[in-house]
Design a protein that fits this description.
Length: 253
């Protein structure tokens, strides 16, 4: 499966999220979750450089699993209205050497104008490097630390357009609702993947949101905490139902 633009399938990535500089529930041993979830309906993982290096043998033995490498960090990820610091932690060339399938960057927008300009310049350089090495960039427009109000959803939709203008190959966005997802898919015409976000609601709520995502034409679902921070049986149920939904999707282009 090409992670850049899967023609007739949806891919599910179990996200490990951006570098957090912290020990969080469910990821106490960072390299442990891959074997624990690899035999489910997961089709890939979002990973840090340390995880990629420590699990080389495992993924060599499981070549069907995609790996998306986080190449940046934003500290503190919970900070609202700026105050964070965004930097690259590795290079596209190193990602290619590692053999991963895609690289991923945050694209925070509730920062100062000068920080926005710097961010856009950084993204542009990464897009150029990705094009040179033929590896896709997953770019994630986000309003850092903000509650999911209507205003924030509208802002992130606008920032998704900026991500497109900068040349992102895949755009990852928090679920903005079925109608807005369909509009983004129709207007931008690049693969759109939807983030699962923090653990919230019951299993049915999560599955319903994912069903809306797929009906709207999104090409993938990146779900992490809504799976691995649940009780194992609940997490497995979410994955099973997501797998059933994705197998029922067909794309014509």
């Amino acid at each position: 499966m090409s992670i850049r633009d899967p023609p007739n399938s949806v891919w599910i990535v179990r996200t490990i999220r951006t570098i957090l500089f912290d020990r969080i529930k469910g990821l106490e041993t960072p390299s442990a979750p891959f074997a624990a979830w690899a035999d489910t309906d997961v089709t890939g993982f979002m990973m840090t450089p340390g995880q990629v290096k420590q699990t080389e043998k495992f993924f060599a033995e499981h070549p069907h699993l995609s790996r998306v490498l986080t190449i940046d960090t934003y500290y503190d990820v919970t900070t609202l209205d700026g105050g964070g610091s965004h930097e690259l932690i590795t290079t596209v060339e190193e990602a290619v050497r590692m053999g991963v399938d895609a690289v991923k960057m945050l694209f925070p927008w509730n920062i100062s104008r000068s920080e926005r300009a710097t961010m856009c310049a950084r993204v542009g350089k990464i897009v150029t490097a990705c094009d040179a090495w033929d590896i896709p960039l997953v770019l994630e427009p986000v309003i850092m630390g903000a509650p999911r109000t209507d205003d924030v959803v509208i802002q992130e939709e606008k920032v998704a357009r900026i991500a497109y203008d900068l040349g992102a190959h895949i755009i990852k966005i928090a679920f903005p609702g079925e109608e807005r997802t369909a509009r983004l898919v129709d207007e931008l015409r690049v693969p759109l993947v939807i983030a699962g976000g923090p653990l919230a609601g019951d299993v049915n709520d999560t599955v319903d949101a994912i069903g809306q995502t797929l009906r709207a034409g999104a090409r993938g679902i990146i779900v992490g905490r809504n799976i691995w921070q649940r009780e194992r049986s609940e997490g497995e149920r979410v994955l099973k139902e997501i797998g059933t939904l994705t197998r029922g999707v067909s794309f014509t282009s």
